[in-house]
Amino acid sequence: MSNFGFIPKTKYADTNSNLFSIFQDFNFFIVDNIHIKSGVRFNYFNHSNINKYSFEPKLGIYFNEKGSTNYYITLAQKTQHLSLVTTSSIGIPTDFWIASTNNIPFQKSKEVSFSINHHFNKNVILNFDFFYNEMKNVLIYPLALSQFNEASSIEKDIFIGNGKAYGLELLLKKENGKFKGWMSYTWSKSLRNFPDIDGGSSFYAKYDRRHNLSTTLTYSFTPKIIVGLTQIVSSGNRFTSSDQIYFINNVPVKEYNQYNKAQLPFYNRTDLSFNFWIIKNVQKESKITFSIYNLFNVKNPVYQSINFEKNEEQLSITKTDKVFYKIIPSINWYFKF
Q1: Which helix (H) or strand (E) holds 130?
Q2: What InterPro entries does the entry give (predicted)?
Q3: pTM for the whole thing?
Q4: CA distance 151 to 158
Q5: Residue 251 phi/psi, 5° resolution?
């Protein structure tokens, strides 16, 4: 059971939803090195006296080559009953979640993926994954979040469309030893298509990130002293920005270019942590962690703002990147007994 609400200014809308699922998996071998994993899930969804049903089949084929390489093919159909509604304004991000209703259908997707898993030895693994995903009933809220004040009005303004996403991922992982960790690179593309946006032409999704590089490394000086380092570099989020601003009777009027055509700068963050185990056994655990978020104090913008400055002769317009979090040190004590 999930409970969520929206709070635009002073009015509050609260809704409850319930999801019940029954699933069954079927696993068997065709021959010694070909394994089939299939299954089906049946969902019953209830929201504000609205009853809906969905069906989710899946099929996985796993081929184990004699040696150290495995191959995987996966087909799946999925349904999402609680949907993320994205916005695309130049200001602070205001995405929100909403449950399916009579006017808001389930989000559905059909997914296919192909994977290769290679073990160089017992310690080092390389994964290659390709994925393709088609989505139906994706949601976008085209207005500013402050423009609605009742939950029922949201359904009238939300746009419903389709989308697709595809890409590939490389993952190199070392699982044992004093020095261990993983490094991954993902290239992906995510597109949306809405009849009411850009004349039905395809445009980039808000979270379309062409490149994403992530690294997590740890080194154990002793079993009780461990240092960790995380590095993330990725393409910035996309948003819709005005390409022209002019004034009518001293009132600014904005003209917008293609939906989600603008993009924030690359995101770059390094985190460092020092872990000191005080006690670590079957019955008790105690650990102190010192960490630094965004070690090099990189200014990663979350959104952009438009500023108007007027002097005696002219009016200037500037766009400013807004940053929420810079360097953040912290200390944490974890214990279990």
Answers
A1: strand 124-140
A2: Beta-barrel_TonB_sf (IPR036942), TonB-dep_rcpt-like (IPR039426)
A3: 0.82
A4: 12
A5: -110, 125
d(CA 40, CA 54): 11
Task: Give domain 1-208's CATH number out of 3.40.50.720, 2.40.170.20, 3.30.460.10, 3.40.1080.10.
Answer: 2.40.170.20
- CB-CB contact of 191 with 201 (8 Å): no
**Residue 300, SS3?**
coil
- Which 3 state secondary structure label does DSSP give 313? coil
- Asked if residue 108 lies in contact with residue 79, where contact means CB atoms within 8 angstroms, the answer is yes
Structure tokens at 202: 């395809």
Residue 234 Cα to chain centre, angstroms: 12
Rounded CA gap, 204 and 28, in Å? Answer: 41
- Asked if 294 and 326 touch (Cβ cutoff 8 Å), the reply is yes
What letter would DSSP give residue 282?
S
pLDDT of residue 229: 98
Residues 68-112 pLDDT 10s:
899 999 999 999 888 888 876 665 667 888 888 888 889 999 999
In eight-state DSSP terms, residue 250 is T
Which residue in this structure is represented by tokens 């509050």?
A: 12
Tokens read off for 43: 């969902």
Say if strands 124-140 and 82-86 run parallel, antiparallel, or are unpaired: parallel
Residues 6 or more apart whose CB falls under 8 angstroms from that of 148 comprise 8, 154, 157
Q: Where in the chain is the domain with CATH 2.40.170.20?
A: 1-208
Let me know: does 242 contact 90? Beta carbons within 8 Å.
yes
Q: What is the pLDDT of residue 95?
A: 80
> How far is the C-alpha of 38 from the C-alpha of 16, rounded, in Å?
32
Q: Please choose, from the candidates 282, 228, 263, the residue with its C-alpha nearest in 3D space to the C-alpha of residue 88.
A: 263
Instruction: Give the tokens for residue 5.
Output: 């609400």
Pairing type for strands 34-47 and 13-31 reads: antiparallel
Contact 131, 112 (CB under 8 A): yes
Mean of pLDDT over the chain: 85
